[in-house]
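quick one, 396 residues, struct below
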Amino acid sequence: MKTYTYVAKDAGGKTIKGLIEAEGPKQVLDKINEQGWFCIEYTEALGTKSGSLHKFKTKELAMDCRQLAAMMSSGLTIVKALDILQKEQENKGAKQCWQDIYEDVQKGSTFAEALENRAGAFPDFYISMVAAGESSGNLDVVINRLSEHYAKEGKLHNKLKGAMTYPIILGILCIVIVIGMFTFIMPSFKGMASEDEMSAISKFLFAFSDFFTSHWYVVLIVVAAVVFAIIYLLKIDAVRYQFDYFKLKAPAVGKLIGKIYTGRFARSLSSLYSSGIPMVECLERSSKVLSNKYIDSVFVKVVDEVKTGKPLSQSIMDTEVFESMFCSIIYVGEESGKLDEILAKTADFYEEESDAAITRLVGMIEPLMIIIMGVAIGLVLAGIFPMLYSGLDNIS
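---
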């Protein structure tokens, strides 16, 4: 099977571009003609996978899983469900990806194998769950769990974005106010006193104002360089490891982030384990869902210890990443033999805790922004007021 890029025209004369998998040129033309399009040109896309065009977002995965679960629970086969799903897609990249998956499954591949052929389009967690569902014969149940999982992930992301809206607006407002004060307000007071009569803070503020107004492009370049340097450094594993470790150990904030991580880890572990996936693989997959280099590194040891027979609760407790209560709950689940049920209830509890943690986290950011804005305005006033008093004395 080869991948080809093509350019075609539909009945209305609209140009359509995309990727298609086929055995050869004849099959490429046949597939394009089946869509009712006229092929203008096509070329073989060496080393390109059709799934790489579109990386599915959490919201898309939740919606697609919900549709698949509804169709499969109604008695449709996975092949027919995928056929309907790919026809319902509005995004061209998603449509092409699901169409390729449908064709692979129709030709005899398993659903999981078809997903793996689209490297990067779907999360490893999604592929592992589907593989477990196919091997156990409960694919419809697993798809339904995936739908719930990604719906809750999407809810958490939306809550975080919504909660951060006000602090972001406040931060932008703070920057605009500071720039306005140093650009327009400070220069208007410069002639009120000579440099000898100015206080040290007034001299510094006026010097900074002069530099900012005359060399604003230098400030812009420096800020851009710092931002790009931070982005680059966070891509280095050693730096990312230290940054992720700091997030967990930071005063006050670290505990709140830990609760958010606990909620996501509990939900992922519960979904994977209840689908029949071995605990070792569950731990490997669940830790990667958190996207934290430090947690990934400590879970290498956890996996090794579980392989040798050490209790999961004790291994997780030794990492000092999650709360002791969470480890105690896992211990109860191990002792009672109902770990999957307890993990599901624990996930629900910690998701509520995550919501509360996000609210408290944002509640800490808002006053911090106000304090920064107040300090900036206070510095400017501290530099201006002495000059105003001096001017009033001269007038009197």
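Residues 46-52 have pLDDT under 50 and may be disordered.
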